[in-house]
From TrEMBL:
<dbReference type="InterPro" id="IPR044643">
    <property type="entry name" value="TrpF_fam"/>
</dbReference>
<keyword id="KW-0822">Tryptophan biosynthesis</keyword>
<dbReference type="GO" id="GO:0000162">
    <property type="term" value="P:L-tryptophan biosynthetic process"/>
</dbReference>
<dbReference type="InterPro" id="IPR011060">
    <property type="entry name" value="RibuloseP-bd_barrel"/>
</dbReference>
<feature type="domain" description="N-(5'phosphoribosyl) anthranilate isomerase (PRAI)">
    <location>
        <begin position="6"/>
        <end position="208"/>
    </location>
</feature>
<keyword id="KW-0057">Aromatic amino acid biosynthesis</keyword>
<comment type="pathway">
    <text>Amino-acid biosynthesis; L-tryptophan biosynthesis; L-tryptophan from chorismate: step 3/5.</text>
</comment>
<dbReference type="Pfam" id="PF00697">
    <property type="entry name" value="PRAI"/>
</dbReference>
<dbReference type="InterPro" id="IPR001240">
    <property type="entry name" value="PRAI_dom"/>
</dbReference>
<protein>
    <recommendedName>
        <fullName>N-(5'-phosphoribosyl)anthranilate isomerase</fullName>
        <ecNumber>5.3.1.24</ecNumber>
    </recommendedName>
</protein>
<keyword id="KW-0028">Amino-acid biosynthesis</keyword>
<dbReference type="GO" id="GO:0004640">
    <property type="term" value="F:phosphoribosylanthranilate isomerase activity"/>
</dbReference>
<keyword id="KW-0413">Isomerase</keyword>
<comment type="similarity">
    <text>Belongs to the TrpF family.</text>
</comment>
<dbReference type="InterPro" id="IPR013785">
    <property type="entry name" value="Aldolase_TIM"/>
</dbReference>
Length: 214
């Protein structure tokens, strides 16, 4: 074991939870975004998150959610962290963190060198940064598209805020992604699916072992 922490995002079936936990995932991600094939209703999410034993971090992924939605979400679903995957400003990130009392992970899209400055800026407002690929302008979703960015952009860089690597990771490429970027945490959604929104237990297991026992 190398201490790498894995997040499996976009769980949609109750059976995904034991599959992710038995594979060793440290974070379980639940998506609340209408356009996503992984979107969960609050009732289903409440049941699924309620079935998670103490230990793993239960993360809610939202996209430019307003306070009323976050109030309803946190009233009904037992959660440990909010992942903000829209165009939230640093001020909005700080406001959500203060208002809702949960750690916040802000997702940032990277396509080139010039996108890296935002990591410093948002690192002052968020508890963690999720470093993801910038979506193509035609993409229907702001994330979860199975697209990677050039990992060399992160080589040799250090940030004081904890961060997690995401975007197009798979059981086949996660070892190389960790080697090139120095990531200590990785996040995957579509790379461990058999179809959009359907997690594959065998690919979850393969991903976790490729990340944690290279
Ligand atoms: O997974 C989704 O449906 C999703 C929807 C809206 C925003 C983000 C979404 N997923 C996140 O995107 C990254 C990368 O996903 P992938 O592994 O490339 O499929 C990951 O952080 C997911 O949490």
């Amino acid at each position: 074991m190398n201490g790498i922490r894995v997040k499996i995002c976009g769980l949609t079936e109750t059976s995904d939870i034991p599959a992710a936990l038995m594979a060793g995932a440290a974070y379980l991600g639940f998506v609340f975004f209408d356009r996503s094939p992984r979107n969960l209703a609050l009732e289903a999410a409440s049941f699924m998150a309620g079935s998670v034993p103490p230990g793993p971090c239960k993360v809610a992924l939202t996209v430019d959610a307003d306070d009323a939605f976050l109030d309803r979400l946190l009233d009904r679903v037992p959660l440990d962290m909010l992942q903000l995957h829209g165009s939230e400003t640093p001020e909005r990130v700080a406001d959500i963190r203060a208002r809702f009392g949960l750690p916040v992970m802000k997702a940032l899209g990277i396509a080139g060198e010039s996108d890296l400055a935002a990591l410093e800026e948002y690192g002052r407002a968020a508890d963690q940064i999720l470093v993801d690929a910038k979506p193509n302008p035609e993409a229907k979703l702001p994330g979860g598209n199975g697209v990677a960015f050039d990992w060399h952009l992160l080589a040799g860089r250090r940030w004081s805020t904890p961060w997690m690597l995401a975007g197009g990771l798979t059981p086949e490429n996660v070892g190389e992604a960790i080697r090139l970027t120095g990531a200590r945490q990785v996040d995957v959604s579509s790379g461990v699916e058999s179809a959009p929104g359907l997690k594959d237990g065998e690919r979850i297991r393969a991903f976790c072992s490729a990340a944690m026992e290279p």
